[in-house]
Amino acid sequence: MKTLSELTDYYYKELYPSIDELEKTRQEIASRLKLYGGMGLALFGLVAIWCTKTFGLLHPMSIAIAIGFIAVGTIIYRSMTQNYAKDFKEKVITPLINAIDSNLLYNPDLMISQTLFERSQLFNHSIDRYRGNDYVKGSIDGVPIEFSDVHAEYQTRDSKGRTQWHTLFRGLFLVAEFNKHFKSRTVLLPDLAEKTFGNLIGGWLQSLNISRDKVIQLDDPEFEKKFVVYGNDPIEARYILSHSMMNRIVEFQKKISYPLFISFVYNHIHVGIGAGKDLFEPAVFTSLLDYKQAMEYINTLRYTIGLVEELKLNEKLWSKE
Q1: Of the candidates 247, 264, 265, which has an alpha carbon nearest to the alpha carbon of residue 311?
Q2: How confident is the model over 117-173, as pLDDT tens digits?
Q3: Which of 34, 52, 92, 162 qualifies as a FRET site for 209, CA 20 to 30 Å off?
């Protein structure tokens, strides 16, 4: 696999003709969006003043008109940027993935299946709407791997019967075959309770989570600060989460700025990176030539695909039975 500096050089040297062309398109789209956005805001301001005088600021009609403005704005934004996003994925993301490993196949319109997502047991809530894109499948050093952006949601209704949508998970979701058969389930979640309330109260709150297996305490203080581990077999969980594995997971968490969710279920490792957004969508208001922006795409791909190496899934830590 190419190093980070090699991928950065590839981005700026090999892909430069495509990036330069896309950058001109981006600038045109950004200028038009600013113009239409300004006109839309001015119109919205006039309509808002009229609604306030006619109906009142919080009247259902005023709220409906405001929602209508947002919906129309969203439709216009998507219609103006969808071809640019498509070209960006075809001319930048696809060659970047091929440069990392030619065994990987990329399809921007597909996603990892909901069955695999639910199988991870990372999120114990029913899913009412499941979407995704930017699907990658293949193998790294012989380890089968697949991942995509995922947006899983559930809905509730308030006292007036109105539907509300809630994000269960949004970000990158990855599944890779683990190098050992195991019968148990082990789930690692961000340790928000202890981080918020401290060890005593946080640990007590974690133990009250009846939707999970029992909390498994591990003897790595740094790992314990970042994750809470639930599992139905403490012995096998400690076998999977060796000191070296815990250290690699902690180091991987340090490299990404998003919450990390990991489970070991059905002989596979499932990893969720809760970015809260689609990671491979081009930013319209940031230059493609901007170093930080370019590095976000490269780092995301490198760290995601490099997860196999990071967690040493390609090493025979245990022989499969």
Answers
A1: 247
A2: 999 999 988 999 999 999 999 988 888 999 999 999 999 988 878 889 999 999 999
A3: 162
Q: Decide if 98 contacts 104 (C-beta within 8 A).
A: yes
Beta strands 129-140 and 105-107, pairing class:
antiparallel
Which two structure tokens, joined as six digits, stand for 275?
């970015």
Q: Is the pTM of this model over 0.85?
A: no
Please, what's the b/e burial string for 51-68 (b: 16 or more CB within 10 A of its CB; e: otherwise)?
A: beeeeeeeeeebeebeee
Q: What is the spatial distance between Cα 94 and Cα 100, in angstroms, rounded to a whole number?
A: 10
> Could you give the CA distance from residue 256 to residue 254 in angstroms, rounded to a whole number?
6
d(CA 83, CA 169): 27
Q: Buried b / exposed e across 147-177, counting CB within 10 Å, b at 16+?
A: bbbbbbbbeeeeeeeeeeeeebbbbbbbbbb
